[in-house]
Every structure is written in structure tokens, then in C-alpha cells.
Amino acid sequence: MTASVAATAAPPRRRALRPARGAQRQLLDELRHAAHRGQLRLAYQPIHSLRGTDTPGFEALLRWNHPRFGEVAPERFIPLAEHSGLILEIGDWVLRSAAAECKRLRACSGRAVRVGVNVSPLQLGSRATMQLWLHYLQDLGLPADALTVEITEQVMLRHPEAVAGQLRLLADAGVRIALDDFGVGYSNLAMLGQLPVHALKLDRSLTQGLVASERHRTIAGSIVGMAHRLRMQVVAEGVEQTTQAAITHELGCDFGQGWWYGRPLSAAQARQWLHAA
What we know:
Blueprint: H1 2-32, E1 40-49, E2 57-66, E3 70-72, H2 74-84, H3 87-109, E4 114-118, H4 127-140, E5 147-152, H5 153-158, H6 160-173, E6 176-182, H7 189-192, E7 199-202, H8 204-208, H9 214-229, E8 233-236, H10 242-251, E9 255-257, H11 267-276
Parallel strand pairs: 2-4, 4-5, 5-6, 6-7, 7-8, 8-9
Antiparallel strand pairs: 1-2, 1-9, 2-3
């Protein structure tokens, strides 16, 4: 009796999965044409200097405005792009678009603005891709240090040799390297000392626990101290409250990023933010 019930129950469950898989395939098919159809755009979240004299910056965040579904969450379409390899084409579009906008931001503000872009491990697998990026910056007349390439701790740990080689190529040319989502427990600190990293970005979960947790403050303070001894800067991500902003400043963070400083902006709004900052 039990076996009979299981046998009759199994097909509906399998059928229930088919629409989801079909929807994923359809979404991927439409993502392949999203850039050409003008559906992709970049939003620029301000990275605010806590020292007053450092170079202002933004993180370029990818957005997909689907004509039927509206804004598609990045956590929904980025994994699809990575799994399919489409991230290579999309990532190249992101870097080129962000670099071109960085040049415009510098021109309109007269300031040495930097823009950061998130990079997938697939993108870091090709030395030729890194060379193309550097040539593109040269063609724009944009100094290499105007671009910050952001990678996650997991990327560093899963592909240490390949990542290190490509990052050194970029860093030797002047591109800045930032390690994103830092402080969530994955880091190999010995490896960190061997990589050409210019900045650590405190994970938002750590930043948002600063107010209620002395332990979080101790960990964050230790990271800041270590980073500065290694001549790295520290960006506190996920700052959403006045108290969080005050604590990150007291701990010695060099930059703050989060809604307290500014939500992701359009390119035009980013220019206005620069004039007001």
C-alpha cells in the first residue's frame, strides 16, 4: 500500500518541477539578448570617503529591467549567467559600460573618481580577457587605477593560483583589487598576504552587527588593523544607520557604503551626488 501511494505520488512532483525548469530556460534565453535590447543597465552606489581626502567612488551594480517581469533580482539571473557561461559576455559589457561612465564622471566633476565592478571566476580564467580590459582602458584614455575589480573570498579560495596570476597582471598595470564580503569566516590570511589586494570590503552582516555585538566590533577592529598594516584600505559595506556609520568611522574604516550614504543611483544621479559630496 505504501509503495503504491509513493508510485502514484511521484509523477505529480516531477511534473511540478517542469514549469520551473522551463521558466529558467526561458529566462536564460531572454537574458542572452537583454544587453542588445537595452534591458540591462548599471546602477552606481556611492562609496563615501570617511577620511575626507580620499578618492570618491561607486560600485557598479547590474540591473535587468525585463519588459514583462519588471526588475529581475540579480540573485536570480546572475547564477544563470555564470552556469551557462553567458557571464563572460555580460561581464564584458558591465566592465566597458562602467569604465565609459567613469570617464564621464571624471570629466563632469573634475575629480579622480573610481568605479568598482564585480568579476566572476570565469572572467578571471582568461589572460586574454584581462589584456582586452587593459587595452579598453587605454583606448578610453582612462588610467588603470580608475577601475576597481571586486572578487569574493570564495573565488580567492577556490581558484587561488589562477586568480592570483590574473590579479597580478591587472594590479601590475595599475588596476585596483578589492576583496568583497570579507570577514565571514572563509579567509586564508596567509594567502591574503600574497595577493595584490588594495582594499577589503567588510561583509554587510559584520557591519550590521556592530551596534548590538561587542564581538562584531572586535572582529571588525582586528580586520581594520590587519588591513592597514598590510597597506590595504577598508570599506564598510551595508551601512544603514547613523550608529553603524559612527562605529565604522571610529574603527578606522577608510570608506563606507550602504543606504545611509546613498542608494544605487542612475548615472545622472551619480553626477549630482559627486557635486554634492
